[in-house]
Design goal:
Layout: E1 3-13, E2 21-30, E3 33-38, E4 48-51, E5 55-59, E6 61-63, H1 84-95, H2 100-116, E7 119-126, H3 137-148, E8 151-158, H4 177-191, E9 200-206, H5 214-227, E10 230-235, H6 239-249, H7 253-259, E11 267-271, H8 277-282, E12 287-290, H9 292-297, H10 305-310, E13 314-317, H11 330-345, H12 352-366, E14 383-387, H13 399-405, E15 414-417, E16 420-424, E17 427-428, H14 433-454
Parallel strand pairs: 1-4, 1-5, 6-7, 7-8, 8-9, 9-10, 10-11, 11-12, 12-13
Antiparallel strand pairs: 1-2, 2-3, 5-14, 14-15, 15-16, 16-17
Length: 455
């Protein structure tokens, strides 16, 4: 297996159990894993050496909530300046035209942005399956992830409650429960890898309380626990969702999840904004993906990050769908998470180190991983290098504060996934981003023009 030495790193932020930060050290990588971290290391002649003088190393960011297909639907004028429910209703009319090609290229766009801004692992919540298209859309995402070189947790999303049953999505994009469950089992059997350093894992992810039935939530939970995979859904994102749950179920969103058995270490939720302290206690041990940019743009509210942590809930940071962000820039999401946290909590807000921990080790814990998110011997070689030697960082006396609050770019110096360099000097080296850009925009333009011609 290939050995690689990252030589002369100015600082290595480990996020290990001792919160150690090492200065002027090397990292030796053997194949997929970190072999050792130390000073003035000597290696065999066939070991590749990369000079990392003046560079800072972190574990790769772990993005815990995304909708990759939405990268093709950014900046659509018809849905700007709208809250979640009308925004969704407007975009469903565009989204219902997606094809396997669109899903593939949408994933490549999102993955490219994530890798170039420091993410080494991402999940995706794909729940849209138009009735006139193949049901193998998630296979297209997995293909894209494998080609580009990102660690990927695909979730088999689902919608079973269309407009005719009181839900939000058009009937043409919802599926019957038996179809959903059959494909869920197919994906788990074909792709889920529970081994150490796995590059592909599957989770089950009914979309939201307002687009699936209680029966499907229960059946998905039963299948997931039978197969040993995780569960994910949107929760408590808006007041509209809260009212929907009260009207339909007579329960608040968190109460509904408890009733359905949807809590625990194998469950994580996106957003979780509108809940009280008592409901936080109900979610202890579960995970949350905090999506600051999306929450701000859609005016959904501010996640109670400090309180969630105090309640024993695992917290992470995520970019959410590009149509509500409108990007897949994980480094920028870290900055916004920090700023939004301070807007809410003031001087009691999380510091730069704590925010970065959420984006790395926190994300790994939310996804149920114990082999990523920390830089230490035996962990996966998912490493990101940052170059803070720019005028934008001049005068900053703490590199971590600078990493979170300063800078004129979000492109990293290097991204390494599973021991393989995939981004160098801010450029993706596993695929041609210009080709991805041209092909993706062509597909996106055709989809949007199609809907506008029918409107």
């Amino acid at each position: 297996m290939m050995s690689l030495l990252l030589k002369n790193l100015s600082e290595v932020v480990t996020f290990n159990s001792k919160d150690e930060i090492f200065k002027e050290v090397d990292i030796l990588i053997d194949g997929k894993e970190i072999k050792s971290i130390g000073k003035n290391m000597t290696v065999e002649e066939d070991t590749e050496v990369i000079d990392c003088t003046n560079l800072l190393a972190l574990p790769g960011f772990v993005n815990t909530h995304h909708h990759l297909y939405q990268t093709l639907f950014r900046g659509i004028q018809e849905v700007q300046e709208m809250p979640l429910f009308p925004w969704l209703k407007g975009l469903y009319e565009f989204w219902k035209h997606i094809t396997p090609e669109a899903v593939y290229y949408g994933a490549l766009v999102g993955f490219s942005e994530l890798l170039r801004t420091g993410s080494t692992t991402s999940m995706d919540h794909h729940y849209l399956f138009p009735s006139n298209q193949p049901s193998t859309l998630i296979d297209e995402q997995i293909k894209a992830a494998s080609e580009i070189g990102i660690r990927f947790h695909a979730t088999r999303g689902s919608m079973s409650r269309g407009k005719s049953d009181g839900g939000l999505p058009p009937d043409s994009v919802v599926q019957k429960p038996d179809v959903i469950l059959e494909d869920s089992e197919r994906l788990i059997n074909k792709y889920h890898d529970s081994s150490k350093f796995a590059m592909q894992r599957i989770a089950l992810a009914p979309c939201s309380p307002f687009s699936v039935t209680k029966d499907l939530m229960i059946e998905s939970r039963e299948l997931a626990r039978k197969k040993g995979v995780m569960l994910h859904t949107h929760l408590a994102e808006t007041k509209d969702e809260e009212q929907f749950c009260m009207d339909i179920y007579g329960r608040r969103p968190v109460e509904l999840m408890v009733d359905l058995g949807w809590t625990g270490p194998d469950v994580w939720f996106a957003h979780v904004i509108h809940l009280n302290l008592e409901e936080m206690k109900m979610l202890k041990g579960s995970g949350v993906a905090h999506c600051p940019s999306s929450n701000m743009k859609l005016s959904s509210g501010i996640c109670q990050t400090n309180d969630l942590i105090k309640a024993g809930i695992k917290l992470s940071i995520a970019v959410d769908g590009s149509a509500s962000n409108d990007g897949s820039n994980m480094w920028e999401e870290v900055r916004r998470a920090y700023l939004l946290n301070h807007l809410k909590y003031g001087c009691d807000g999380l510091n730069a180190y704590e925010i970065l921990r959420l984006a790395t080790r926190g994300g790994a814990e939310v996804l149920g991983r114990d082999d990523i998110g920390i830089l230490k011997e035996g962990m996966a070689a998912d490493i990101v290098l940052f170059d803070l030697n720019d005028i934008a960082y001049a005068g900053c006396h703490d590199p971590l504060v600078g990493l979170v609050t300063c800078g004129n770019t979000s492109l990293v110096k290097m991204t390494m996934v599973n021991g393989k360099v995939v981004v160098k000097d801010g450029k993706l080296i596993t695929m041609d981003t210009e080709k991805i850009r041209l092909e993706s925009h062509k597909v996106a333009d055709e989809l949007v023009k199609l809907q506008r011609s029918l409107a």
